[in-house]
Write a structure and sequence with these properties.
Oligomer: single chain
Radius of gyration: 18 Å
Mean pLDDT: 87
Number of strands: 12
Low-confidence stretches: none
Shape: globular
Structural class: alpha/beta
Strand content: 15-25%
């Protein structure tokens, strides 16, 4: 095979991945959780990677879709910021147009690459609430946000010390799909929302991101039906702007007893 015969398919694949990265898909999932006290709609966002590639126009585009969905709560499960450069707080101001409360837990790009102090500076003026190893009650829902940890033992210690209640629906916001369904059920977590994997984004380029985790994307349910994990494919991309085997996604989760 000559060089040209190899070059053309490679360029077509690259072009497909580049164009695909501009497509923003909205998906809706129904989740039956026996411990839910009432119906609840949650928009799950993750991995926007705001920085040199994605900016305020991308935020406005995401916000427009979220407003159309009219959720009760919005969550962002890490890597809101890319970490490769500082951004000004006004980039996040479009989020203020959303009526629902917005909760955010740190991902590796937020905390490790950028740092907590810079994240907090960027959040100033926006309605996004950072849950950094803390829990907050929103009506009858206990929302637990834990910052990204390299070791599962540290994650578990934080989870044990936080307010996991038996009198409400417990939703864990944690960036990576590090715990199994059985482990989560043992800690009385009914729903874990995460991201990090980008659904593969451009496999096999991101194999190192996928390989440690059992859950890569989508919804998983425990055998008992009490605990669920939803891993977002993300609403942005890391590294080059390519999406070959996944979609930039906003997910509406309709939770009911």
């Amino acid at each position: 095979m000559c060089i040209r015969d190899r070059f053309i398919p490679s360029m077509l694949l690259f072009l497909y991945g580049f164009i695909s990265s501009f497509v923003l898909t909205v998906t809706t999932l129904d989740i039956a959780i026996p411990d839910a006290r009432s119906n609840l709609s949650v928009v799950h966002l993750s991995d926007l990677h705001l920085g040199p590639i994605y900016g305020k126009s991308h935020v406005s585009r995401v916000v427009a879709e979220v407003k159309r969905l009219q959720p009760d709560i919005v969550v962002i499960t890490g890597d809101l910021l890319d970490g490769s450069m500082k951004i000004e707080p006004d980039v996040l101001f479009p989020f203020n147009e959303i009526e629902a409360d917005i909760y955010f837990s740190l991902g590796n790009h937020d905390d490790v690459f950028l740092g907590l102090e810079e994240v907090e500076r960027t959040l100033r003026g926006s309605k996004i609430v950072l849950l950094n190893d803390e829990a907050v009650m929103n009506n009858d829902v206990n929302i637990i946000g834990i910052g990204y940890r390299l070791k599962n033992e540290t994650l578990v210690n934080k989870l044990v010390n936080l307010n996991v209640t038996y009198d409400a629906l417990n939703i864990l916001l944690y960036h990576a799909p590090s715990l199994t369904l059985d482990e989560l059920e043992g800690y009385n977590i009914q729903l874990h929302l995460g991201g990090h994997t980008h659904g593969g984004q451009s496999f096999p380029l991101y194999w190192d991101t996928l390989s440690p985790f059992k859950y890569v994307r989508g919804l998983r349910t425990s055998e008992t039906g009490k605990t669920h994990v939803h891993i977002s494919e993300g609403a942005g991309t890391a590294g080059p702007r390519l999406r070959m085997f996944s979609r930039s996604t906003i997910t509406l989760l309709n939770i009911h007893p």
